[in-house]
Write a structure and sequence with these properties.
This protein is of the alpha+beta class. The chain has a single domain (24-150), classed as Alpha-Beta Plaits (2-Layer Sandwich), CATH 3.30.70.640. The chain contains four helices and five strands; from the N terminus they run E-H-H-H-E-E-H-E-E. The chain has helices at residues 40-48, 56-69, 71-74, 114-132; strands spanning 26-37, 83-94, 97-109, 140-150, 157-158. It has a five-stranded antiparallel sheet, with helices on one face. Helix 2 packs antiparallel against helix 4 (114-132). It is elongated.
Length: 160
């Protein structure tokens, strides 16, 4: 196998973090989504603020922001990135009952923020599960995906 074709492997086939030092700073934006499905009663408790642990969406929003900021500590080959903006928003689905999470992450830098957006959406969903597990243990987290990204050498991407 020729490891020269893989950016995260050195010549000996060992993992490495890619050197982005030669890249120029550009504005980069990434948007990711996640969904957590649940029973209608659980969704109603979230919407009404009736969950015993408190305001589920407020806590999930802060958790998602923190996750984006700490992605480099969680994903081994991610660079620490000076993020310039993080926005976590929520929407509700009724059929099936669900909380839909969207994370938008921005920076001006040498590497993209796709992983930060995906991590933010994922951790926000996990936080919703944690906040609601006393009411329902069989919630399902799914549909975690990159919606779009802008900037950088790789160009723009849109799933839509």
């Amino acid at each position: 196998m020729d490891f020269k074709d893989f950016t995260h492997f050195n010549e000996a086939g060992r993992a490495r973090m890619v050197d982005v030092g030669g890249k120029r700073d550009t504005e980069r934006v990434a948007k990711a989504r996640a969904t957590i499905t649940m029973h209608p009663d659980t969704l109603a408790l979230i919407q009404s603020g009736g969950m015993k642990k408190g305001d589920v969406l407020a806590v999930a929003q802060v958790a998602g922001i923190q996750a984006a900021k700490r992605t480099w500590e969680l994903i081994p080959m991610c660079h620490p990135v000076a993020l310039t903006g993080i926005d976590i928003s929520f929407d509700f689905g009724q059929n099936p009952p669900a909380v839909k999470i969207e994370a938008v992450v921005r920076c001006t830098g040498q590497t993209g923020v796709e992983m930060e957006a995906l991590t933010a959406a994922s951790v926000a969903a996990l936080t919703i599960y944690d906040m609601c597990k006393a009411a329902q243990k069989d919630m399902e987290i799914g549909e975690i995906y990159l919606v779009e990204k802008r900037g950088g050498k790789g160009g723009d991407y849109s799933r839509l």
